[in-house]
Amino acid sequence: MWIKEIKLKNYRNYKNISAQFSPALNVFIGKNAQGKTNFLEAIYFLSLTRSHRTRADKELIHFSEKDVHISGVLERVNGNITLDINLSDKGRVTKVNHLKQAKLSDYIGTMTVVLFAPEDLQLIKGSPSLRRKFLDIDLGQIKPIYLSDLSNYNHVLKQRNTYLKTAEKVDKDFLAVLDEQLADYGSRVMEHRHDFIVALEEEADKHHNTISNETERLKIQYLSSIPFNDKSEIRENFLILLRKNQQRDIFKKNTGVGPHRDDLAFYINDMNANFGSQGQHRSLILSLKLAEIELIKSVTGDYPILLLDDVMSELDNYRQTKLLEGIRENVQTFITTTSLDHLSQLPEQLKIFTIEQGTIIEESGV
Length: 366
Fold this sequence. Notes:
- One of its GO terms (biological process) is double-strand break repair.
- One of its GO terms (molecular function) is single-stranded DNA binding.
- Keywords: ATP-binding, Cytoplasm, DNA damage, DNA repair, DNA replication, DNA-binding, Nucleotide-binding, SOS response.
- The chain is an alpha/beta fold.
- Helix content is 40%, strand content 25%.
- The protein has two domains: 177 residues, Rossmann fold (3-Layer(aba) Sandwich), CATH 3.40.50; 181 residues, Glutathione S-transferase Yfyf (Class Pi), Chain A, domain 2.
- The chain is built from nine helices and 15 strands.
- The strands form three sheets. It has a six-stranded antiparallel beta sheet, with helices on one face.
């Protein structure tokens, strides 16, 4: 899978531009605040219909305009696919091959991406919400039913929390009905996550072992507020905990257990990675990203597009080499950087673009 062309209209500081890419490596060079990250964000947005930098869609629209349009031509094994997103104050319209998609899960997964940005280094020591977001983005791309189950879970969770906040007297029979629905969708969400984490750990450990010269092993632990030994136990255990915590939930007016409280823990040689060195953190995140690429390929049959947003300067020459070695020849890659000076072992097949004040100029071809 690779994106052949992208067009942006009124996207952040891009008024109206288009660019054609190499199926291998594409490097965006420019000073800070010129629009390099905006361009990568646009590719990410075309894939996932959301930004990795903001939840406020209006920030994506050029300050003097009312809507934004992003389109791209994607080449996959079975032919070309055209993607379009139009975003305005009336909402967003997503199209695949010019046909409007009614559901988000019908659109997401058509074009898969793996993003590696400096903020990913916070995945280990940052808040649990960052790790849940990591799970949701990856799982959503390779398993559309996950997005549907998660959306249904969040809908019932919001309904339950609103009822707990607004009811003058809680009807426990009604709460029991909500609990059944919450356990139905929530247990499915946790099953998806459990299976994904098992597969991710296996693949990431291989990469981490290689990067560490076979001196370190990586483990990933799923920290759920619903304890279980087998997936078949999740739904019943969820219901038991909801009943047990009912008085707590009524008093605090929120739901204390469920996948919205999930977290992950990373271990290097059985030591919590929180206590690891900066170099170990970089190797761990690098291993996760390389594992994501392989997992997406194994499930979808296509390699994802890799977006490296100003991370090469964060990696020493050794880890840069391991990253570039780990990228398959048929993984289309986009790199943003202020200079080529710190990049090592770049392949011959690449395109270099200069980005300046919302313009993009191709400097060299394949």
